Amino acid sequence: MAQAARDPYVILISIYIFAPYFVTRVAPDPVEGQLLVAGASKWGGWAVMFTAPLLGAFVDRIGPRKPFLGAVVTMMALLVAALWFAPPLGSGLPGLPLLAVAVIMGMLTWLMAAHEMLHNALLVPAAGVAGTPRASGLGLAGGNAMSVLMLLGVLVAFALPGTVDWSWLPASPLLGLDPALGEPARITAPIVAIALLVGTMPLLLLVPDMPRSALGWGEALRAGIGDLVALLRELRGNRNPLLYLASRMVFTDGLTAILVFGGIFASGTMGWGTLEMLGYGIVLSVAAVLGGLLAGRLDVWIGPRPAVIIELLTIMVFQGLVLGMGKSRILFQTVVPVRVWDGPMFNTLPEIVFLALGCGMAVSVTAAYASSRTLLTRVVPPEKLGVYFGIYALSGYATMWLGPFLVETATIIGGTQASGFIPVIALLGTGLLLLLFVKGGGRLRA
Prior knowledge:
Number of strands: 2
Order of helices and strands: HHHHHHHHHHHHEEHHHH
Number of helices: 16
Strand order of the largest sheet: 1-2
Low-confidence stretches: none
Structural class: mainly alpha
Largest sheet: 2 strands, antiparallel
Mean pLDDT: 84
Shape: globular
Strand content: under 5%
């Protein structure tokens, strides 16, 4: 339930609804909006890099996780709910300044990383060692399912009414929300905040926590620093796993940048509003489920290392093709955007092609995340798996600022949204190149 309550923040706020709304309707123009989001993600990533590993080691030493998780969830809910007060540019409504919204998004980047760490640390106390795989899978499935249900709910209750004359739809958005004021997009903020608070309560109230240690806060901090140093020493003399971790660190930055900025790019490039972005998010979320299933098959058929290689190559191809799309452009060729059907959205050929490319990206990105985790279990000594999963998590935090920084810099240099994604392809290619020198991870043989 806690995972199902947390993941809609990523889907509705960070990727498909609020962030694209902010870029296209709150910021002066999509390029400046993309720069603001990139800057916020960069600063939040720097904060995560410098604090998250130490926070994790400190919490391990102090014992209980739930008090820290409760504080993080409360702060997240308050900040997410505050995004309701971000009206469109020129609406005349009082609201948060542009920079304040960007600061909130940067703070949420740090809080989301802290939430993930504390939440995952309660997995074994919640389910036991034997029940961990099932609980983990149910949590991920619940997160995707809840996100799709919320997207559908917002679509039916607030976005579609008034745009199509269907008998089963309300004649106008529920609660009297005004699309001209961006309210169907902004309402996702309080919805996600309430779900986060309510969905986390069973975890905080019912799941047993780790026992409190005898260490004071200062002692726990010093001991945590010692644990991090010892963890890094464990890596000496293990070139192949280190090479994989370096590869994974680089290409994961590219994957994260695609997740963070993919919806923003779609909204700005295709001129899509909340209605289209809701449909886009629903379709791609379903495609992402297929990606997870495909990864499991590929890992068995050809092995996780070849699977990751194929997945990264596929992502690079799709991302390159996406950069050639626009409202009147298909794969870098200018076309007349003639309507091909009378539906409420995705009714021109450029939109349909963009949607198809987006589905390919969703399948490939999800599969790459899944296969890369499987690959770690195949390239490290089994007796040191715990140590390496600690470094695996740390490597994900260490450079999470790099993708947003490169997107921000390239957007400034190129002056377009598409130019910001060129270094993302370079990140994927660099990670792929390093992966070619990693040994192992092929198909298991009887």
